[in-house]
Amino acid sequence: MTAPERERLARAALNFVGEPGSVPLATEVAAKGGERAYDDLLAGRSLLSEDLALRAQRVDPVAELLRAAEQGIRFAVPGDDEWPAMLDDLAFADELQQRGGIPVGLWVRGPRRLDEMVQHAVAVVGSRAATSYGCQLAADIGAKVAAAGVTVVSGAAFGIDFHAHRGALTVDGPTVAVLAGGVDRAYPEKHAPLLEHIAHTGLLVSEAPLGAASMRVRFLARNRLIAALARGTVVVEAAVRSGALNTANWTAGLGRTLMGVPGPVNSAASEGVHQLIRSRGALLVTRPEEVLEAVGPMGSFMLREPRAAAHPRDLLPIADQQVLDAVPIAQPALTESVARIAGVHPRRTREALDRLLSAGLVECVSAGWRALRDTEAPG
Amino acid sequence: MTAPERERLARAALNFVGEPGSVPLATEVAAKGGERAYDDLLAGRSLLSEDLALRAQRVDPVAELLRAAEQGIRFAVPGDDEWPAMLDDLAFADELQQRGGIPVGLWVRGPRRLDEMVQHAVAVVGSRAATSYGCQLAADIGAKVAAAGVTVVSGAAFGIDFHAHRGALTVDGPTVAVLAGGVDRAYPEKHAPLLEHIAHTGLLVSEAPLGAASMRVRFLARNRLIAALARGTVVVEAAVRSGALNTANWTAGLGRTLMGVPGPVNSAASEGVHQLIRSRGALLVTRPEEVLEAVGPMGSFMLREPRAAAHPRDLLPIADQQVLDAVPIAQPALTESVARIAGVHPRRTREALDRLLSAGLVECVSAGWRALRDTEAPG
């Protein structure tokens, strides 16, 4: 199914005249639909600024869509099969971010269907000024999550974003880059090869029209889309002023799962993440499996908590464990004393001590029995 | 105020015949008081084991208390001013730990009053097999917390415990070591100088009678006292099998504040702590100030979240920020385009751009205005 062509053209025109994340425009379109919002704007019956009306008259949406199509770029709008229903949540998200609302449409470049790609998706974001620790983790999470069939959504920026996409690509996994500028432009320029690669295997998505440059307001608008296109967001590294925290705010505002990867407390690059875990209820995650468990379809990724390798003590019968626990660690004790403290009959204690001796868990010195070091005292 | 001498003698005797943390003994004493529990045991009217009754007949509590007093050691019991009321919470703590209950008494060695020392106290615990990262943090937390007048409670073990005590001692701050064996014995032996130091400036405390050796069951019993003698417990490092997790369980069971210091996710020594934060609701803490905020007397330690140094952008008037946000980061744009995207009148935009130019936040090239790198795009 595709949206009616007049609706698409109207929304394309509105997309050209309004800024990404413009709340008045989103509100108008939500109330009237694209076609009527556009007609009203052209006819001067709109509450939107006159400036917008003037520009609307100059835009030729048919030409714009054709120009895009020539570059393999489409403009997806509500009503298209491809339109992700999860974007609707943006209508209710807290608008404290200067930008907000459901986008009037999205410019999409790549061979895959957007709705399918983001059906199971997680955003992996973080600082541009990332450490090698963070970059390695981002790549590892990107790879393992994508290998499990979950799409990695990120912003193609330097640092964490880059490595998250790269991780997904190393396993030929699904990844979507949501850009602040046009999907026909490589920003940052150095990531042109990455973006080309993603355009051929995954998707590039942007709310900004073709040719649009990247600027701070558009990053703020873009971050809400990253949050909205994923079931949850993992912040891998973020200093206290990182833009990734803006994406985190959107994630929380949308009621999606917010996750953070901890790091050394003396690393400035982890400080923002630690704050998210401490004060914003972000879930601490340490491994890709924990990310999958948190955002995967219910029950599809069952996680086993990491446990230490079985300790020799755990393999003993309970009675032998009781005896072992009662053997002193430093100064040796006689069998009778061990029996008393263990609360086990002396004859059975003697038998247990023999087994513990064979197992190498205790030693017998002149003054009695002593536990060997590797039985490790608890605490 | 001190407890009646007969009650103290009865409890000292019971302490000698029962193991630390014996639940049947604690239950009996809670129901009858020390004196009657002891009399009943001697008269064979007790539900406690016959074995205990036999041993009770052999103990001479007067001699034991005298022997202790000669070494400067006292036996504190409920009714003494020194007895910390917070130990009463152990009557209600979940007894899943093999050991539990309010101790019948505590052997105390050192110049300070126990109740005063633990009035504002935090436990700082962790792995024996700690990393230098963990040891440094433990010392830092120990020092800063103690310098603020909050007592550092720990177990004098190798690794984190040692460095937590050491941190407190470096600032001549208050610290209490809770031992699994007798307070007259140095365990571990290598920590004899540390324990001597604490015995002269702080307190050594144990539920185990003089001369008692350290063994696994006694560590389990001891851990509940560490948790009970502090308002909260910070776990600095703990592998998934660390005994510090046992102390963490007691802390949670007692409804005290459980805290954990994160570390690199690839450090096995932080794995147990990450689990506590992930699954047990432990509060993530990264600095001593955060520990103080969590356990200090209400409102006494107000914490300011770390913030990045003020960014030049933050110092601008709002209108100038709006203009700056609309200046492209890569390709330059003309004033009119910046004005349109900023939603600011062209004349005012021109004035703002001039100010931004002087402030070094934008540059003017042949094709127009461009934001300079350090304005850092958000995300």
Cα end-to-end separation of chain A: 63 Å
Most extensive chain contact?
A-B, 72 and 72 residues
Proportion of residues in extended strands of chain A = 5-15%
Strand order of the largest sheet of chain A: 1-2-6-5-4-3-7-8-9
Shape of chain A: elongated
Radius of gyration of chain A: 29 Å
CATH architecture of the largest domain in chain A: 3-Layer(aba) Sandwich
**Largest β-sheet summary of chain A:** 9 strands, mixed
Count of helical regions of chain A: 15
Oligomeric state of shown chains: homodimer
Number of domains of chain A: 2
Question: What is the ordering of alpha helices and beta strands of chain A?
Answer: HHHHEEHEHEHEHEHEHEHEHHHHEE
Short overview:
The structure is a homodimer of 379-residue chains. With 379 residues, chain A is α/β, with parallel strands linked by helices.
Structure description:
The structure is a homodimer of 379-residue chains. Chain A is α/β, with parallel strands linked by helices and 379 residues long. Chain A folds into 2 domains: 71-295, Rossmann fold, CATH 3.40.50; 312-375, Arc Repressor Mutant, subunit A (Orthogonal Bundle), CATH 1.10.10. The first copy, chain A, has helices at residues 5-17, 23-42, 50-58, 61-70, 114-117, 132-147, 160-170, 192-201, 216-228, 244-253, 268-279, 288-295, 318-325, 335-342, 346-358, and strands spanning 73-76, 106-109, 121-125, 151-154, 175-179, 203-206, 232-235, 257-260, 283-284, 362-365, 368-371. The longest helix of chain A is centred in the N-terminal third of the chain and has 20 residues, at 23-42. Chain A is elongated and about 100 Å long. At the A-B interface, α9, α10, α11, β9 and α14 of A face α9, α10, α11, β9 and α14 of B.
